[in-house]
Amino acid sequence: MPQPDIGHYKNDILNYGHIYTNLEDIEIQEDIAKDYITVYKSIREKDYKPINLLSCHSERHREKTRLSPLFIEIFLKEAKKYDLKKKVDIKSRNVDARIIADQKKEDVDSLVKATIVGDKSIRQSGSDLQKTFDFFVRQSLSPLYPEDRSVGRIKTSIYTFFEQKFKIKCEEAQDDIIGIALSSKNKQHFVNVIDSAKQEYIKETAKRKPLLIPDEIWNVPEYLQFGSDDIKEDRKKSIVQPFYVKYLSKIEKVFVDFLEKPNGIVWWFKNEDRDATFFAVPYDNGWQKPFYVDFIIQMKDGRIGLFDTKAGLTLKTAGPKVEGLYQYIQSENKKGKKLFGGIVTNADPKDYKGRWVYFEGQDRDLKDNDFNNWKTLEL
Question: Which branch of life, at top level (predicted)?
Fold first, then answer.
């Protein structure tokens, strides 16, 4: 991704980049590439028949990584609290740039570890002044990403402040506004207000709950891309081939072994946990969230299994997700679907050589270390 700190794009094609080279050998540094470089590709089998499941995903909170119009409102409140109007010297409006001029060194060695500072100043105006203002705003945005819209929000905040408090309009005196804001007497005051506004903005957006967006028709993706950390395995019943995986737990791997045995399965799909590309059901954990189940299984008798592997501590904290999956299966089956499933585990938690069992009931009926109301998973 070109901007990994912003998040994935809604248009999936924008989430991928490609490297082209005529070099015979190329090495991608792991500390730079991490998970952003695609190395392998899996393709959905041609005989796949659509299952058309109702899915969901969270609306991305872009306001947590870039400034929304809310920032302008917060900036003006913080400016009032800081008493910025009284602290600004409206007559101070010169922005000088320090430059290095006419310096000579006879000995190059004397430059080692030496600091050379500007010894002359020049007054800025026009495009140079705008560039200095842009640089100032981008620096003040950290830790938020300095993309153009965020830069624009801070500029608009400052312009609005001057129009409201000093009746100076941006379209008539933009250079004057910038000169006042960046002058040596005023600059730190604006830095202080921007910083306090930024902190309030981050607190405010953190309170906001993400919206859950329904995806009316979900099917196994036509292709998936993987990084260098993913391992290729020979899995005949995986609906995407070749099969690449990076297991998050031992029980996932053992469960895949179980699914590969001769049985009534047509295919299975190892689901992942991000955006609308993968399958999720809604669950409530204080607010609505997407629950990405680990496995989707197509049975020969037409049923579709939805299973999420759990063991140890994850089994004890599965309550809200159990309820969400139960409600989803009940609701969709009333519409004519043939779904079954739930959280799945092995009755032998030490080496997973026991029987596989799954819980398809409600959260209130889930008990610790008690599989009496669980069903044996026979596929």
Answer: Bacteria
Rounded CA separation 305/237 (Å): 14
State the Cα–Cα distance between residues 152 and 155, nearest whole angstrom: 5
Q: Left, alpha or beta for 130 (phi > 0: left; psi -120 to 50: alpha)? A: alpha
Judge contact between 289 and 209, C-beta under 8 A: no
Q: Which of 376, 365, 299 is nearest to 337 (CA)?
A: 299
- Six-digit token string for 211: 């919206």
Strand partners, 55: 215
How far, in Å, CA of 147 to CA of 150, rounded? Answer: 6
Cα Rg, the chain, nearest whole Å: 29
Q: Are 320 and 285 in contact (CB under 8 A)?
A: yes
Instruction: Give percent above pLDDT 70 in the chain.
Output: 78
Residue 99 CA to residue 111 CA, distance in Å, equals 18
CA dihedral 181, 193, 188, 172 (to 10 degrees): 0
Q: What is the pLDDT of residues 288-326, one digit of tens each?
A: 889 999 999 999 999 999 999 987 655 666 788 999 999
Cβ atoms of 290 and 56 within 8 Å: the answer is: yes
Strands 339-346 and 304-309: parallel
Chain-wide mean pLDDT for the chain?
82
